[in-house]
Amino acid sequence: MSKQSKHIIIGGAAGQGLVTVGQLLCKALVRAGYEVLVTQHYMSRVRGGHNTFNIRTGAQPVTGPADACDILVALNQETVTLHKEEMAGKGFVILDTALNAEGLPALKVPFDKLAPKAIFQNVAALGVLCSVLGVDKEYAEELLRESFGKKGEDVVQQNRQVLDDACAWAQEQQALCDVLPAVPRREPRMLINGNEAIAFGALAAGVKFCSFYPMTPATTVAQNLILHGRKLGVIVEQVEDEIAALNMALGASYAGAPTLVPTSGGGFALMTEAVSLAGVMEQPVVIVVAQRPGPATGLPTRTEQADLNLVLYSGHGEFPRAIFAPCTLEDCFHLTHKAFDITEKYQSPVFVLTDQDLSDRLMGVPPFDLSSLPPVAGPDLTDDNAAGYKRYAFTENGLSPRRIPGYGRSLVLADCHEHTEDGHITEDMGIRTAMNDKRFAKELGILSEVVPPRRFGAEQPDRILLCWGSTEGAARETADILNAQGQKVAVLSFPQVWPLKPDQFLPFLASAKEVVAVEGNKLGQFARLLRQETGFVVHRTVLRYDGRPFTPDFILAKLSE
């Protein structure tokens, strides 16, 4: 087992408290100064089934999930049976004395003795894990006081006694692994997931309205806006269906509110007519599409990157758009903030394309620096020349003055038909051509603000791993492994997948002997998009579409075939 990092899998049925144990442990690890990355695998049911809370932790940064398990925490027998083949060479299982380790090295814990009441068993498990990993129990004690302080000192002390007993018991047992290396105390960090970061990015950008229909894995974006947005004057509306969600958001945008709509592939499919409406109205809106495997209901709680084409080509007719694909939690925050600026500035729909892996990925990150954020564009709040105001006035850069109805004397017209400069319906063919050209003139501005792809690894590589979105972390770790073996491997990662600026990446791609596209879909959609837009053809693809996120082991195995 590596002394630098460990992979811990906490497994059990829904309702057994595995998320509670996992989150408490992660908070303790982050407070102790360790790096943490969590991926969650859960079934589409409230109770039962088999779920896991997977934690990678260590003194050095961890960028993606792992396959081999160092410590398996089994809350039921099924967890041992399902994961025993995934154990690393020196891996072991932590389980109750009533369960069977099935031949694995085991630390059998008498949970009934350590926690006489079942409600305290999660705290006992936390104490055992802190002891095994070498994490000072003071961090766990802080968490218990924060979690149960409102219930009274007696409840806090009961939980603390269970924690103390569990830590003491574990320290008396034979060590089955090395503890984590000591790390210096760090500045405070936040333990958040991708959807929380997206919500925070929207709040930092000044979002004022969110309408949504619940759909995994996007729902928690709206839930976080409900939790944190009320004090900032954010209105969040759960509507009757996805069609209403986007149309209501466009109405709020017309009234002047920066708006956001979170959904997933199946829900977004119902929104495509309204996407086209946003295009012709030139109405700002940010749409978060958190991908999961399809077709249809597919695997509602798993991950995939198969909705790029859906988002890129959604909506009938032609109109400009931008698509961001966050690769990290920091991207989730900053690119969502940028999405609001782009949609407000260029009056076109903008998408944040994430996936279940990144939406639910939990990490410790430094607090976001709000002082470094650029201001977000907004509507024209003047009332000059109200009588001559034209909402869709022809301009060289395609940007027309956007005013707010009721804010002054300007008459602000909008409709779903082709229209004249002042917003009235028209079927004049000349105006139609000119108006379509005006809308597409905005593409030059959007292109000027494209986020360039990022490079990692070898400066002059023989092989480039091409990726986008959440795949970046696993690709980076794969490149690090191969470079340590003497190969020359780089990663080219795209945090924005539309529009594309070929001069930002084509020379670098052309310099390598082999370019391998790493994507979470069957068809290699981004590789096909590159070929369509630039003529560049990748040499190979590494594709995954079983509902699980990429790991370095998976990529390495495919590269060796």
TrEMBL record:
SUPFAM superfamilies referenced in this protein's UniProt entry, alphabetically: Pyruvate-ferredoxin oxidoreductase, PFOR, domain III (SSF53323), Thiamin diphosphate-binding fold (THDP-binding) (SSF52518), TK C-terminal domain-like (SSF52922)
GO biological process, one term: response to oxidative stress
Top-rank lineage group of the source organism: Bacteria
MF term (GO), any: oxidoreductase activity, acting on the aldehyde or oxo group of donors
Pyruvate flavodoxin/ferredoxin oxidoreductase pyrimidine binding domain span: 201-429
Keyword Oxidoreductase carried by entry: yes
Assigned keywords, A-Z: Oxidoreductase, Pyruvate
Pfam families (UniProt xref): POR, POR_N
Domain Pyruvate/ketoisovalerate oxidoreductase catalytic span(s) in chain numbering: 14-166
NCBIfam families: OAFO_sf
Protein name: Pyruvate ferredoxin oxidoreductase subunit alpha
Organism: Desulfovibrio psychrotolerans
